[in-house]
Every structure is written in C-alpha cells, then in structure tokens.
Specification:
The longest helix has 33 residues. The protein has one domain: Orthogonal Bundle (Helix Hairpins), CATH 1.10.287.3610. It contains four helices and no strands. The protein starts with 7 loop residues before the first helix and ends with a helix. The protein is globular and about 55 Å long. The chain has 123 residues and is mostly helical. This is Diacylglycerol kinase. One of its GO terms (molecular function) is ATP-dependent diacylglycerol kinase activity. One of its GO terms (cellular component) is plasma membrane.
C-alpha cells in the first residue's frame, strides 16, 4: 500500500525545499560544514586544473562532494541525538563518534585521491 501524502511534481518540489532547508541549517549551525564548503570552493576549481583526464577530474570532484555528504550525515546524527536530551548515554556517544569517523574517513579518502592525482601529474 502506498504511503499517503503528496505525489508527482509537488512531492519533488517539496523534497527540494526540504533539502534547501537542510543546507541552510547546516550552514547556520555547523562550523565544520562551513569550513568544508569553503574548502570545496577552493578544491572544485582546482580539480579542473589538477586532473588531466575526465576520470581524474571526476574522482577529485567526487571526493570533495563525499566530504560534504559525510558532514551532512554527521550533523544529522548529532542533531537527532541532541534532540533526545542532554544526559550522557553510551549509545548516543557511540553514534556521534561513528558519525565523526565517517567524516574522518571521507577526509582521508579525499587526501589519498588528491595526493595520488597530484603525484601522477607532477612525478
């Protein structure tokens, strides 16, 4: 049985609006998100210069977007956990730590890709 609610173009338009609200909230409330967006502003144009093939450029760009996606997921986890209360709980801490680890892994992946493409280009 289909889920009740909006369908078709109205659902798509509303979903886009919710996504824009999510970006705005991340920008307003998450310093790490702002830092990573500023990093993306630098790295995305640099990817066109550093990459020499389409695949290299796609990998460079994808690694930047993966960091943004990981930060959005981490911020969502933190917001959901923080909504439940201020008391410390081992599972809440574990969830937040795992979200942070997701961001770290994405940054490591970005570094590996950028270093690999840089070495291939210049050495």
């Amino acid at each position: 049985m289909p889920k009740p609610g909006k369908t078709g173009l109205r659902r798509i338009v509303d979903a886009f609006g919710y996504s824009m609200h999510g970006f705005a909230a991340a920008w307003r409330f998450e310093a790490a998100f702002r830092q990573e967006v500023l990093l993306a502003v630098i790295l995305l144009p640099a990817s066109l210069w550093l990459g020499t093939t389409l695949m290299e450029r796609l990998l460079l760009v994808a690694s930047v977007f993966w960091v943004i996606m990981a930060e959005l997921a981490n911020s969502a986890i933190e917001a959901a956990i923080d909504r439940t209360g201020d008391e410390m709980h081992v599972l809440a801490g574990r969830a937040k730590d795992m979200g942070s680890a997701l961001v770290l892994v994405s940054l490591i992946l970005l570094a590996i890709i950028w270093l690999s493409v840089g070495v291939a280009r210049f050495l």
